[in-house]
Amino acid sequence: GLAIDMIQSVLCLCLVFVVDGLAEKPHIVWIVADDLGWNDVGFTGSGSNVHSPTLDRLARSGVVLANYYVSPICTPSRNCFMTGRYPIHTGLQHGVIVDSMPNALPINETVVASVMKQAGYSTHMTHS
Question: Would the pTM of this model clear 0.85, i.e. be above it?
């Protein structure tokens, strides 16, 4: 239907998995994937032919935030995820920041990694 079409048109899908562990605090893994469509993972139950056993297992044991919409380009979406603020408030609403550009997230912005560290978590970011 229309809702599925809208979801498929989103170029970035943020999945949040909270996995209970033996530690005092739950383990939190955020996966932000540019250009990931609703049918690109098995755990959505969409009849996808894509096999994603690790993500499927994490989704079964955690929380999946699947009814959220993002900008069709990565910089504004990442800005929102990292700061919790609309990109218009940081000046990152219009395009994609590439390596040769001088723009960046304003240095005075509080980001989710800082908040998590203040709460006693260790943080790590990677990309492929």
Answer: no
